[in-house]
Amino acid sequence: MSETVIPLLQPAPQPRVRRVRKARRVADRMMRIIAAGFTLMAVTVLFWILGMLIVKGVSGLSLATFTQTLPGPGTEGGGLANAIVGSIILTFLGIAIATPIGVLAGTYLAEYGGSSKLANLIRFINDILLSAPSILIGLFVYVILVEPFGGYSGWAGGVALGIIAIPVIVRTTEDMLRLVPASLREAGAALGAPPSIVITSITWRAAKAGMVTGILLALARIAGETAPLIFTALNNSFWFSPTLLGGVSNLPVTIYQFASAPYDNWQQLAWAGSLIITASILLISTVARRLVRGSK
After folding, report:
1. How far apart, in whole angstroms, are the C-alpha atoms of residue 158 and residue 98?
2. Which of 19, 93, 139, 168 is deepest in the core (most CB within 10 A)?
3. Is residue 50 part of a domain?
4. What is the CATH number of the domain that holds 284?
């Protein structure tokens, strides 16, 4: 004799439950509308800025922009050649200072420090430096390198930019090394390799793309810094000394000075310099993202 299965009847939702569900749907829809509205507002402002930068920046670009030096007050023509080269030198000098310090500090935190008090203190200080105003770092370098040596220099500017880049590299290096599976370290140790060989030959190779990405992000971070260079490298209307002593011309400070000047050609060069910096940062960020995707 077959058993008859009697389906269980679901109780009808109570009016209070229906009201709660309706209120949740309305709240969800309202939050979507608000979030979409603010996203549209942010995107609109971003494209507005980029559009204005492209329109005004392209009009100031020419062959002279990349071949001639900064023009004097009231003169016609001129370019940004010395400022572009100076910015490249200062930026790569800062990265050259920050990369070994940041990579080694991040390696210590990921491989040796763990949750020790010293490691937690280093992470805390690194977080403070990560959010510190760049003008304070410029003032700090001014006190320790500019005042004692009696003048501005490209070396002081490179040190200031390096201090800004260090916390970015430290954080990225530690995070990337922590993503490396422990089994790789154990395999190296099982072969008799000391920890230093395991780190340099296995862990660093596995996290190489992410570490390079962190260096590129730090490079993009310091490429447009103005405040620290005002206190350290200042500026120069001519080609700088090979020793980098004295003022060193650079794009950020040049843009700051030319944008507020009453000369039309200076303002055009300021827009052109802004476009050059923005395009450079965009290129560096794109390369960094592609490296991250490749590592994944």
Report:
1. 9
2. 168
3. no
4. 1.10.3720.10
Tokens of 223: 């490429």
Tell me the mean pLDDT in the region 128-132: 89
What is the pTM for the complete model shown? 0.83
Question: In this structure, is the dihedral angle defined by the CA atoms of residues 277, 282, 287 and 288, taken in order, positive or negative?
Answer: positive
Cross-strand partners of 245: 153
Structural domain count, the chain:
1
Does any domain span residue 247? yes
Sign of torsion, CA 17 18 21 24? negative
Q: Which of 54, 83, 53 is nearest to 68 (CA)?
A: 83
> Between the CA of residue 228 and those of 101, 109, 206, what are the distances in Å?
20, 28, 35
pLDDT exceeds cutoff 80 at 5? no
Is 47 among the domain residues? no
DSSP 213-278: HHHHHHHHHHHT--HHHHHHT---SSPPPTT-BS----HHHHHHHHHTSS-HHHHHHHHHHHHHHH
Q: How far is CA 93 from CA 90, 109, 128, 175, 263, in A?
A: 5, 25, 23, 25, 32
Look up the domain containing 69 and give its range. Answer: 63-295
Dig out the tokens for 183 from the structure: 């089994």
The Cα–Cα gap between 50 and 187 comes to: 50
